[in-house]
Amino acid sequence: MLRIGLLTSGGDCQALNATMRGVVKGLANNVKDLEVYGFMNGYKGLIYSDYRMLSAKDFSGILTQGGTILGTSRQPFKLMRTPDANGLDKVEAMKHTYHKLLLDCLVILGGNGTQKTANLLREEGLNIIHLPKTIDNDIYGTDMTFGFYSAVNIASDAIDCIHTTASSHQRVFIVEVMGHKVGWLTLYAGIASGADVILIPEIPYDIEKVCEAINRRKERGSGFTILAVAEGAIAKEDAALPKKELKKRQEEIAKKYPSVSYKIAEEIEAKTGMEIRVTVPGHMQRGGSPCPYDRVLSTRLGSEAAQLILDKQYGYMVGMVNGKVKKIPLGECAGKLKTVDPNAQEVLQAKRMGISFGD
Ligand code: F6P
After folding, report:
1. Range of the domain at 163
2. Which residues are annotated as a binding site for substrate?
3. How far apart are CA 225 and CA 244, in angstroms?
4. pLDDT tens for residues 36-58?
5. What's the CA-to-centroid distance between 135 and ligand 1, angstroms?
6. Backbone phi, psi, residue 180, to 5°
């Protein structure tokens, strides 16, 4: 008998279902007696013992389905050691659920925060496998996370649509792209859709340089400019501030503007006199069916996770390294962020083609 638990935690993304399907099909085809416990709404389900028994049938037909059949929630890592409103020790409660159900392994699908809790549970003696999900692609130790390319497709489609209206009206357009503190999604969506300016947190922007790029295009006869701006984009002068002052500054910006793109828009308008619009595709970027690349990636990661469980190898994230699916010790990647290297090939190649990063 093999008993596994499954949970999806943090912001959802495409291919969560496809990944769980890979795990369960990979096990069901190779184990006679398999019990699958699906914990509802992320770590909450594990803490409060809220689960559903699942059969292979539950994983049929979900390869292309977005979201997560288990539901999800955000349970901040920094609060995991803090008792809940009723004084319940959450870590002990999770361990209790795991042992009560006699689980052989718990498979956790999630991003950075989720991974930190997964590693904590590993340190507490549970058998854990982590699978890297996020549209942000910011998980250290894997080249790619599932969800990323699906989100790149959606953000690129949004910028493509903006392109036609921007050129018709000769306007400057900012499309704000998700990505939390990193610029992977903006960089890839920006390149894929031919953005003229790409602003990402890893390369703090100088507003003068951004305006120069817009004016240069105008002088060359292109009266419109498309900016792909990461939600975490940061001005050069702000990036230079000490941590505490930066936090204060970001709070001020958040109070005054719905997001950083509106601040940038105001500054560009004042400096260039051009008509400017902001578009925020927002959570659309996390929604809908996974793209074929993500379906393949998640199926491969899920299947490999199944093999690790069959081999009783626990305590790993299953990721993609140089085109191969690999196991990476959780202790080596948890708590680290994978950011865009400002000198990455993608950035330098884009710059060579005239794309401005505002630096
Ligand atoms: O981590 C995925 C992500 O979509 C980020 O890109 C974004 O900053 C954040 O989640 C949004 O979180 P929420 O769904 O809580 O609004």
Report:
1. 150-286
2. 134-136, 171, 178-180, 231, 277, 283-286
3. 35
4. 999 999 999 999 999 999 998 99
5. 9
6. 60, -120
